[in-house]
Amino acid sequence: MSGYCDSAPGHPVHASYHDTEYGFPVSDDKVLFERLALEIMQAGLSWEITLKKRPALFAAFEGFDPAVVTRYGEAERARLLADAGIIRNRLKIDAIIHNAGIICGMQDSHGSFGGWLDTHHPLDKAGWVKLFKKTFRFTGGEIVGEFLMSTGYLPGAHRDDCPIQALILAANPPWRRQSR
């Protein structure tokens, strides 16, 4: 995403995400779930819109706690669809609620969503996309690729000459580690 390294620094919306989150390794399930949900919400929209709505999405989905979100029923769906502060798309909202349940299952089977990701690491993008499509809802190639780059499971979040890339390399993201 070389263009992001050119446009994000100093930008009022993108700078903080680019400089402190994008591409850094993530292990916390709530953060992983939030990142997946944000990528789902972004589909068909600009990343800037999604980042601007991030605080409202965080509040609406109660901190992206998968154990809470998986219990959402029709009342919570109606609340979310009526919330003008978020991206109100029934298919995306339903996918996020469904995916919360999948993540809770991964917490039981693998200890965490991160544990599930680590179990399957390393895969190339095509392998990850196939696995995500089989496992989650609303996870096409762009969503999966951006989610995995944003959380350190795939390289490519920053150009090699971007100063943030050195910080990411120092954090030893999963894509730099050998496993399996």
Show the helix and strand layout.
Elements: H1 2-7, H2 15-20, H3 29-42, H4 47-60, H5 66-69, H6 74-82, H7 90-110, H8 113-120, H9 125-135, H10 141-150, H11 163-170
Helix pairs in contact: 3-4, 3-7, 3-10, 7-8
Explain what the structure shows.
By secondary structure, the chain is mostly helical. The chain has a single domain (2-176), classed as Orthogonal Bundle (Endonuclease III, domain 1). Helix content is 62%, strand content 0%. 36% of the residues are buried. The model has no long low-confidence stretch (mean pLDDT 96).
Brief summary of the model shown:
This protein is mainly alpha-helical.
What's the total helix number?
11
CATH architecture: Orthogonal Bundle
Can you identify the CATH superfamily? Hypothetical protein, domain 2
Unreliable stretches (pLDDT < 50, length at least 5) are none
Biggest sheet layout: none
Structural class: mainly alpha
Tell how many strands the DSSP assignment holds: 0
State the order of secondary-structure elements, H for helix, E for strand.
Answer: HHHHHHHHHHH
GO molecular function, one term: DNA-3-methyladenine glycosylase activity
Protein name: DNA-3-methyladenine glycosylase I
Keywords: Metal-binding, Zinc
InterPro entries: Adenine_glyco, DNA-3mA_glycosylase, DNA_glycosylase
